[in-house]
Amino acid sequence: MLSARHKRSRARHPASGPVLGYTEDGFPIVPVTIEHHPKGSVLRLAACPFCGRPHEHGGPHDNPSYSEGHRISHCLTSAPGDRGYILCAVGKEK
């Protein structure tokens, strides 16, 4: 049986995250920030457009812009229409 804390962590957030636009195929374009690390980069999505939770995606160290593009969401439960999203780096890179 799941603990009450674990059950809450799987609950959907009522608001979805920001979307910059949509592709012709209907994929949401979402803003991410990039953090550089010695072994690669981390692309951070502040709030998923499907569940509202933060997600992280990995990327190469030498050229983090290669990490932009289609990714599968990391939602704990599937949402209707969730086929992933397009990552778009915005703001400062750390």
How would you sum up this structure in a few lines?
The chain has 94 residues and is mostly beta strands. It has one helix at 4-9; strands spanning 21-22, 28-37, 40-45, 55-59, 69-71, 85-89.
Task: Characterise the protein shown here.
This protein has 94 residues and is mainly β. It has one domain. It has 1 helix and 6 strands, in the order αββββββ. Strands 1, 2, 3, 4, 5 and 6 form a 6-stranded mixed β-sheet that branches. Mean pLDDT is 77; it is low at 1-14.
Set down the secondary structure blueprint.
Elements: H1 4-9, E1 21-22, E2 28-37, E3 40-45, E4 55-59, E5 69-71, E6 85-89
Parallel strand pairs: 2-6
Antiparallel strand pairs: 1-2, 2-3, 3-4, 5-6
Number of strands: 6
> H/E element string?
HEEEEEE
- Give the percentage of residues in beta strands: 25-35%
Mean pLDDT: 77
Low-confidence stretches: 1-14
Main beta sheet: 6 strands, mixed
**How many DSSP H or I helices?**
1
Keywords:
single chain, globular, mainly beta, six-stranded mixed β-sheet, 6 strands, disordered N terminus, 94 residues, 6% helix
